C-alpha cells in the first residue's frame, strides 16, 4: 500500500515512545538493510565526495555487533566497502548483484556475470554522447552504468534523457533504465532489483525466519522495490523512507514505506537507538 510522504509516522518517535514500531520489533531480531547515498550520507554533487561521518560509521558498527546489517547500494561493492571502512557488514553492491559477507566472503549473483560486453558498449556510448553536456558524469559499475547530471545546467539536462532514450532504442529489450536523484542507471534488462536482492539475502543468510524482522532504510526511487518486497516477508518487514517531508519534491510523492526519517542525522539517531 502506498501513502504520501507526509502521512508517514515518524520512525524515531514511535520507536522511542514504545509505539507501533517498537511493538513490531518486540521479541524479534532486526535484520537491517541500509541504502548508502542519501541514507548514510548526504547527497552530494560528485559521488566520490559522499563520505560517511565518523559518528554514522560508529552507529553502524555498533548495530552490526548486535544484529545483521547489510548495506545495499547501486555503487560497486568494493567502493562501498572502502567508503564504509568496516569489516563486520554484509555489503550488496550493484543493486545486489555483487554480495560480500564477513562469514562467507564473495557471493556473486549469477545473473550479473554475463553482460560485460553490453555494458562496455553502453559506457562508450554514454561517454561519447555526453561530452557536449558540461557537468555530466559517467560512472561505470560492475553490473550497470550510471550517468549523473546534477552539475549540468537546467537547459542541458534534457540532452541526457535523450541520450539514454536513444540507447534503449538501439538495444530493444536488452536494457532498462532506472531513474534516481539526478542520475540514470542503465542496466541489463533482467528481473532483478533491490527488492529481489533483499529477499535473496534473507534466504541466503538464513534470516527468513519468524523471529527476524527485516528493516530497510532508503531514500530513492530504487529503494521502493525493497519497501514493496518487505510486505512479502513473514513477519512483514519494515520500510523507512529517508527524506524531508517538507521538501517540495515530496509534496506529491507516494511510497510503500511504513515510516519516515527526515534526515541523515535522524538515521544516525535511529540506528543508535536500535543498537541500544
Brief synopsis:
With 276 residues, the chain is α/β, with parallel strands linked by helices. 33% of the residues lie in helices and 22% in strands. It has 2 domains: 3-108 and 192-275, 3-Layer(aba) Sandwich (Rossmann fold), CATH 3.40.50.1000; 116-188, Alpha-Beta Plaits.
Report the end-to-end length measured between terminal Cα atoms: 30 Å
Q: Please, how many domains?
A: 2
Mean pLDDT across all amino acids: 88
The CATH H-level superfamily of the largest domain is HAD superfamily/HAD-like
**Residue fraction in strands:** 15-25%
The number of helices is: 9
Sheet having the most strands: 8 strands, mixed
Give, in spatial order, the strands making up the sheet with the most strands.
6-5-4-3-2-11-12-14
**Could you name the CATH class of the largest domain?**
Alpha Beta
How many strands appear in the DSSP assignment? 14
CATH topology of the largest domain: Rossmann fold
Q: Which architecture name of the largest domain does CATH use? A: 3-Layer(aba) Sandwich
